[in-house]
Amino acid sequence: MRVDAITLVRQAVPLSLMQFVLRCALAVPFWRSGILKWDGFLQLNDTAVALFSEEFMLHLPGGPYPFPAPTVTAFLAACGEIVLPVLLVLGLGTRFAAAGLLMMTVIVELTVPDGWPVHLTWAAMALAIIGGGPGRWSLDHGISQIRAVRMR
Fold first, then answer.
1. Alpha-carbon separation of residue 98 from 55, 62, 109 (angstroms)
2. C-alpha span between 124 and 26 (Å, rounded)
3. Which of the residues in the chain have pLDDT under 70?
4. How far from chain centre, in Å, is Cα 117?
5. 20, 54, 66, 71: which one has the fewest Cβ atoms less than 10 Å from its Cβ?
6. Where are the alpha helices (DSSP H) in the chain?
7. Residue 120's CB: how many other CB atoms inside 10 A?
8. Contact 101/88 with Cβ under 8 angstroms?
């Protein structure tokens, strides 16, 4: 009798654990990037603003083009890199958070096109989360369970 490795993993590791690990794996690189952009509460550091003002460019046809309103763009990106990973790890608004990180991944890819192998991995993780949901180890699941009980 032949048992393949995928079947063994599926039997040994609960799907909810895999979904939680996937959420954490996608959250980490964005959190690590976001945490470097702040000097304090809602206080963006000069390096973050300088990157969006002077270094980062959007590589679109006919470009590259500078980011519009670099200070605002840097602030919004830094907020997204903190808030969305936290939501993702908690499993709260999970599909929304994954979709937000997918959109950020697209912008990162347009900014650093040579990083496509990593960006493709992030996109695949985000799409898996959007398609598969947060799993049982999430606040989304807990909220849906509470709602189901109240509707009875």
1. 27, 30, 16
2. 10
3. 1-3
4. 16
5. 54
6. 5-12, 15-35, 46-50, 70-90, 94-111, 116-132, 139-151
7. 12
8. yes
State whether residue 100 is helix, strand or coil.
helix
Query: How far apart are alpha carbons 77 and 104 in whole angstroms?
Result: 8
- Token code pair at residue 117: 């192998």
The gap between the terminal CA atoms of the chain, to the nearest Å, is 46
Q: Tell me which H or E stretch contains 38.
A: strand 38-40
Residue 1 has what pLDDT? 52
Q: Which amino acid is at 91?
A: G
Distance CA 131, CA 14 (A): 18
Read off the tokens for 40.
């304090």
